[in-house]
Amino acid sequence: MLNFGPDGSTRAARPDEDTQRPWIPLSRWQLEQGVLTFTDSRTERRFAAELNRPTLGGEWRTLTLLGGWWCSQAEVEAASRVLTNPTGVPTAMTQPLIPEIMATPAYPVQAIRAAREGRVVVCFEVDPGGTVRNPQFVELTDEIFRGPSLDALMQSHYKGWSDDLNGPARPACRSFIYRLDQIY
After folding, report:
1. What does the alpha-carbon distance between residue 68 and residue 50 come to, in Å, rounded to a whole number?
2. Which strands sit side by side in the sheet containing 66-71, from one edge to the other?
3. Segment 15-46, tens digit of pLDDT
4. pTM of whole model > 0.90?
5. CA angle in degrees (0–180, nearest 5) for 79-46-92
6. Domain containing 111: what range?
7. How many structural domains compose the chain?
8. 79 and 108 part of one domain
9. 180 burial class (0-12, 13-18, 19+ CB within 10 angstroms)?
């Protein structure tokens, strides 16, 4: 969970079973030309999000890794419980998404022949039944990887959490890395 304060502060709390760990301070958030940025010094991840998207999300980077992140707004009642739990330990707002089927993309033959490598970050929603919907490409280094990444994502499925399929969806992201030395 992330909390962006009006004073520029950024805090994070990470799920641990049925509870949240205490809030951890991150760097101050900054806004330049419609891009929100902040850093987690513990993991050395730099987060960036373009604010023209319908939901808050984007990519994170370290010197050697790249990933995606996507947030949905917490209900005010749930967020206030996180801050006022009498035990001093914030409670979880949502349970983590649990993958049931995680499909792997096929490396495109044309990319192998052309010795192309790349990476893809796709953010999406998971409905209460565990089905992936509304994928959005956050990063795509080469169009040749769009189809296989989308196919793998749409073949994936998560453990459902409600019988009410019209309930609110949860945000998620997946990264796909295409490297020639990892073709089996």
Report:
1. 12
2. 30-32, 35-40, 45-50, 56-61, 66-71
3. 655 555 678 899 999 999 888 999 998 888 99
4. no
5. 20
6. 99-182
7. 2
8. no
9. exposed
